[in-house]
Amino acid sequence: LTYLMAGTAEAPEPWYLALLGFAEHFRTSSPPKIRLCVHCLQAVFQFKPPPRVEARTHLQLGSVLYRHTNNSELAQTHLEKAWFISQQISQFEDVKFEAASILSEFYCQQNLVDSAKPVLRKAIQISQQTPYWHCRLLFQLAQLHALEKDLVSACDLLGVGAEYARVMGSEYTRALFLLSKGMLLLMERKLSEVHPLLTLCGTIVENWQGNPIQKESLRVFFLVLQVTHYLDAGQVKSVKPCLKQLQQCIQTISTLHDDEILPTNPAALFHWLPKEHMCVLVYLVTVMHSMQAGYLEKAQKYTDKALMQLEKLKMLDSSSILSTFQVILLEHIIMCRLVTGHKATALQEISQVCQLCQQSPRLFTNHAAQLHTLLVCLQMTTHQELWTFIVTNLASVYIREGNRHQELYSLLERINPDHNFPVSSHCLRAAAFYIRGLLSFFQGRYNEAKRFLRETLKMSNAEDLNRLTACSLVLLGHIFFVLGNHRESNNMVVPAMQLASKIPDMSVQLWSSALLKDLNKACGNTMDAHEAAQMHQNFSQQLLQDHIAACSLPEHNLISWTDGLPPVQFQPQNGPTTSLASLL
């Protein structure tokens, strides 16, 4: 509160200093005494203060009520008065623009977005001579448009901000605006605009000489965009140099001290993320890469590290981005659990994602499709890559069911890898070839199946997509076995088994061991057949025990949830084996 006294034209009255001092004392008490703080601030009005003091006190009261109480009506009244009165006073920028910023934030929290926009627009219009506030308000309005999915308006505002920062002589803030715009263009899949923009950003970041932490944080932002761009395209091998640079960059940041001198240019008083948040983000993109590449033990290792870091951060920081990071990490580790044959743990972690989404309507909106069953989430997502991913998985389910021919052919028409594939993702196109191969195998069209699977192998080998490689090898091995070509079958199944063990992929190991058993039996290799049969028995037992454990969990009821908000949470009998239980 006391920092708001800065900039008063005349020495403050003793009564004002006393009331402000008491208010600050009560606000910072442990625990805070908010009611007494509010009483002290309200007492200021008894003295009929001048307009500057009146506006500042309304702002202080509105902020305290908004941040620390549920009295939204009174908070709104005070913030609106602070904004109205301060506009009539010249040379009163800090109070004026802070009032506009907090009032807009309040309106958004109350779902009054249409009330927030004109306040921000007016504040942006009259703040051009105040570089810090002009940039901050542009970022705030751009974020508001982005949350509404109006990415075109958000990008326009970020472009305005970049040009303003250039004129103000802050290449650092110009880079922040441009990188933010690049992030939104990636979300919109406007790749023709992304590439030149990222090239420009790369040049600005490398040429900028300034605060080392600011420079490295710009490099992290730039590299995170590059890495996610590659991963979106399913280019798991091509991304490795960028990912390595990113990991080195975050190591550099962790050795730098935060107590650097503040920038002299007021337009440069911004930072992208706290370095602790950046660390979690780098762990997160590393997990995404490991998951796509099929290095599941590595994905588990980095997920555990990231979740431990999040656990510490959430004790001190209520930032919503931390919950978003947590949900994305859990989504990836859940996929790992399903592959490695740990469905019971996956169910408990799905339940945790539900709990996190219940706490935030925005999180639920953005992640409901990922949580839901395949049929339902097709109706819930407009994201083209997610839609294609779901259709590919659903096609796999229909093929195995064997009696959903009409629905299956309808899906396959929409994800034809040879013609008009809906997305540019290398990984998803390779998966679509695999689905075609699987269908041809079940239909007994073996030569056609081999063509599709060799296409998958070519694509998956090019980008180190280990799981697709393992699945394609074992299916090719199965085809050669059916055709009586035992030698070629063995050449496929043995590397499939090795790769599946390395991932580890329990289902492919089960499939490979069954095939090895039959193959060795057919070739008269009794000892090897017996060993393979024992392996198959072990994998079967593990998967069966996990299946029984998953079905007995209270969280298993989540599979019947197909609409609306997640059901009321169940009390898990035993927490999962990671540190997740203590997070919630």
Can you describe this structure?
With 584 residues, the chain is mainly alpha-helical. It has 3 domains: 8-110, Alpha Horseshoe (Serine Threonine Protein Phosphatase 5, Tetratricopeptide repeat); 128-229 and 259-271; 363-560, Tetratricopeptide repeat domain (Serine Threonine Protein Phosphatase 5, Tetratricopeptide repeat, Alpha Horseshoe). It is built from 26 helices and no strands. The chain has helices at 14-27, 34-43, 51-68, 72-87, 93-109, 113-126, 131-147, 151-167, 171-187, 191-207, 212-232, 240-255, 275-293, 296-316, 320-340, 343-359, 361-371, 374-380, 384-401, 405-414, 426-442, 446-462, 466-482, 486-502, 506-522, 526-552. Helix 21 (426-442) packs parallel to helix 23 (466-482). It is elongated and about 100 Å long. It starts with 13 loop residues before the first helix and ends in a 32-residue tail after the last helix.
CATH superfamily of the largest domain: Tetratricopeptide repeat domain
For the record, what CATH class of the largest domain applies? Mainly Alpha
What share of residues is helical? over 70%
Number of strands: 0
Give the SSE string.
HHHHHHHHHHHHHHHHHHHHHHHHHH
Estimate the mean pLDDT confidence: 84
Number of helices: 26
CATH fold type of the largest domain? Serine Threonine Protein Phosphatase 5, Tetratricopeptide repeat
Strand % is under 5%
Q: Return Rg in Å.
A: 29 Å
Main sheet makeup: none
Features:
584 residues; mainly alpha; Serine Threonine Protein Phosphatase 5, Tetratricopeptide repeat; 3 domains; cell cycle; MAU2 chromatid cohesion factor homolog
